[in-house]
Design a protein that fits this description.
Number of domains: 1
Number of helices: 15
Strand content: under 5%
CATH superfamily: Farnesyl Diphosphate Synthase
Shape: globular
Distance between the termini: 19 Å
Strand order of the largest sheet: 1-2
CATH topology: Farnesyl Diphosphate Synthase
CATH class: Mainly Alpha
Radius of gyration: 18 Å
Length: 286
């Protein structure tokens, strides 16, 4: 239901492909619509539900964080980054269109995310909406996702410690997952204790997501994943599987799952939907 709701909202917020520049707008829609787990919108809505937020207000926050995620995938797939040709079971943006268009798609999706969050009511008070804009900017920037990607690129072929690998993924993957949860919480009447508890949960959930991603990259097929399987190993990137082995990575995922559930249990609101998503993150096969 939330995935369909998010898809409908994204279709509404994205520029229509008949509006100039036509090619850019068509490429933006190609890169965002019709695929993906929508994990970040799911987390955003689940956190909003926990604090009795209006789903319509959660929509703009959920779509904003999903647009940031989509832009990061477009740029991540470029030849100057991971040079991948498959995403969500179809050609990546730069393959379907061209590299220059893909670069502009990422730029445009990023700015559209902030436009949505600024223009549409997403919080009970203007001050809280400004806080949400700051949260998203920090999660996407050099001290968040972009910084994590820079560390990832610099780490190719290097032997990182487990602490260094965790630091990288807290930024590259975890920052945006944490933002999704906190943005959802800010759309409702979350108090400081609830925000802190949800932040702790999101830290564990973000790392869990990455560990499971590493496991799937090692075990999954290209058909199942919808992207090139085994590319981390092929590019000599440090992963949890390459560093501690497949079985220990699975043990780590199980421990992180327990820690995420424990964090939710300490929060004095209904976090049942977030708990279910924690299990889904752990058990997913794509």
């Amino acid at each position: 239901m939330i995935q369909r709701r998010t898809e409908t909202a994204l279709e509404r917020y994205l520029p229509v492909p008949v509006t100039a520049p036509v090619r850019l707008h068509a490429a933006m829609r190609y890169s965002v619509l019709g695929g993906g787990k929508r994990m970040r919108p799911l987390l955003c809505h689940a956190a909003g539900e926990a604090v009795d937020a209006d789903p319509q207000q959660v929509d703009s926050a959920a779509c904003a964080v999903e647009l940031i995620h989509a832009y990061s995938l477009v740029h991540d797939d470029l030849p100057c980054m991971d040079n991948d040709v498959l995403r969500r079971g179809r050609p990546t943006c730069h393959v379907e269109y061209d590299e220059a268009t893909a670069l502009l798609v990422g730029d445009a999706l990023q700015t559209l995310a902030f436009q949505l969050l600024a223009e549409h009511p997403a919080a009970p008070a203007p001050g809280r909406q400004l806080t949400m804009l700051t949260l998203l900017a920090q999660a996407a920037g050099s001290r968040g996702m972009a910084g994590g990607q820079a560390i990832d690129l610099a780490a190719v072929g290097m032997a990182l410690s487990i602490e260094e690998l965790e630091f990288m993924h807290i930024h590259k993957t975890g920052a945006l997952i944490r933002a999704a949860v906190l943005l959802g919480a800010h759309t409702g009447a979350a108090d400081e204790a609830t925000l802190q508890g949800l932040g702790h949960f999101a830290n564990r959930a973000g790392l869990l997501f990455q560990v499971v991603d590493d496991i799937l990259d090692a075990e999954g097929s290209t058909v199942t994943l919808g992207k090139t399987a085994g590319k981390d190993a092929a590019q000599d990137k440090p992963t949890y599987v390459s560093m501690i082995g497949l079985e220990r990575a699975k043990e780590m995922a199980a421990r992180l799952r327990e820690e995420a559930h424990a964090a939710l249990a300490s929060i004095q609101v209904d976090t049942g939907r977030l708990a279910a998503l924690t299990d889904y993150i752990t058990e997913r096969n794509f």
